[in-house]
Amino acid sequence: MESLSIKKLADLDASGRDQAVEIFTDAFLRSLQFMSKDQTRLTRALRHAFVGDQFYTAVENGKVLGIFAYSTNLARAFSFDKQVFQKEFGRIKGSLIYKVLHGELGKPLDFNDRQCYFESVATAREARGRGIATLLNNHLIAELDYDEFILEVVDTNTSAYRLYEKLGYTEIKRKKQRLFPKLAGFNERIYMKRGKG
Question: What residues does the N-acetyltransferase domain cover (predicted)?
């Protein structure tokens, strides 16, 4: 862990940015399959959407091993361009993809100025179990000037739920997945929060 450094996505070169997007598409492939099952195509289509100042990465020897994004009531971690999706998937499908992703990840959050939302937490396959997510979580909580940190985890991701409990998060509510839960791969979104200290 001593050779690991934490950097904003904006401070990485093009290769590092691509690695971060690949980690995201690999981790969330099941949820993204409505766009395409081709991970290379997904990476190409989503590369533009990652806001560099909202994503933090764990880097070791030039390789990105984990990502951790945050959003607030003023800034989201993603900014989608409908034209990019239309170019990649065609006018109709690209427009639908934009609508779904913007609705899920691009709309302003109904938070107060002291709340922060963590999202898109993912670790490269070869680095899982090394504490990368914990390291990034602790770094962001120390670095960011917010009083309350909120995140969501799906009910099928029990290992992440247990990790967040260990990190001091407590469950605050559950929301049923109404649209295509089998396709999405989960039944409920679980929201958790913790304070600064």
Answer: 7-193
Per the structure, the count of domains in the chain is 1
Domain that holds residue 114: 4-146
CATH number for the domain that contains residue 103:
3.40.630.30
Digit-coded pLDDT (tens) for 63-83: 999 999 999 999 999 999 999
109-140: pLDDT as tens digits = 999 999 999 999 999 999 999 999 999 999 99
152, two tokens: 């969501």
* 94 domain residue, yes or no: yes
26-32: long-range pairs with CB below 8 Å, 24+: 26/122, 26/124, 26/125, 27/122, 27/123, 28/120, 28/122, 30/184, 30/185, 31/184, 31/185
Residues 6+ apart with CB under 8 A from 176: 187, 188
Q: Is residue 184 part of a domain?
A: no
pTM: predicted TM-score of the whole model, two decimal places: 0.91
Q: Give the distance, in angstroms, between the CA of residue 91 and the centroid of all CA atoms in the same chain.
A: 26
The answer to whether residue 104 is domain-embedded is: yes
Assess whether pLDDT exceeds 80 at residue 55: yes
